[in-house]
Structure formats: structure tokens, C-alpha cells
Amino acid sequence: IIVLFVFWPWQSVPTGYRGVVTQFGEIKRVEGEGLHFVKPWESLTNFNLRAKTAHVEKAEAATIDTQPVVTGLTVRYNIVPNKLAHVYEQYSHDGDLSSYVETATMESFKAVTAQFTATELIKKRAEVSDRVWKALNSKLDKYGANVLNIDMTQFAFSKEYMHSINQKTTE
Q: Is the pTM of this model over 0.90?
């Protein structure tokens, strides 16, 4: 009984996770939620598939009319289950891709912002957000991630630009 307890072959994968089974460092299989038989020479690592959040506090870009714009972005993403082995092997053993997501988010925001004037960014904020989402989803596909949602938490232009807008509206 002591030997059975020491070499207990059953391991649990909780809800919202997948179990990556490795044997001497090589991925052998991916297990779903529940109780699984794991040989004593294999190792099971629980990998979180639930939604995660990446924050970009200060994404800086320029509009098509060269107005600098700064925004804060919050990105919710998850790992695509059928790409889990690739993500585990290449990028992360726990599902945290926030550094990749943050970099790709800044690149996507810059690319999309450059397609709009400063006035259009304000008027078409939903369209801008949608385009950033599409660009980001395309970028993150190679990392095995799926973008669930993007929130632009702040949106600010330079003080000079805001001052000139305020002057025009008061005239």
C-alpha cells in the first residue's frame, strides 16, 4: 500500500485546464479535465486555458495627420485548446503569454491608428477598437492565442492639439 501511495498513478486536471503529459521532457499527450492515469516516469503539468488579461498602460501612436495619441489598452485572451502543445513547447509552460500580447497589442494599435485622422479616432472609436481586435487576433494566432476582447481605457492627444480643439469650439 505504501508503494502504491508513493507511486500513485492518478492525477487530476481541474476545470478550465488541460494536462500536458511529458516523458523525460517530451510531450506525449494532452489530457482533458478529470482524473487521468499517469505512469510514474511521466509528468503531468496543469495548463490554464481560462481567459487572461494583459494591460498596456501607455500605448503611443500617431494618426495619419501626425497627431500623437496615447491610450491604455486591456486585452482579454485565452489559449486555443488545439494549439496547447505548441504553446507549451514554444512559449509558456503555464499559459501566460502577456509579454507577447502586450507587444503585439502596441504594434496593432500603431498600425490601425495610422489609418485615421485624430478627429476620426474620436468619432469612430468602436471601429478603431474593432480593427485593433482583428489585427491583434491575426498576430496572436501564431502564438496559439485568441483575443476575446479589447478595451481602450484611456484616449488622449497632445496638450497642444487639445488646446487648439478647445479654441476652435469656443470661437
A: no
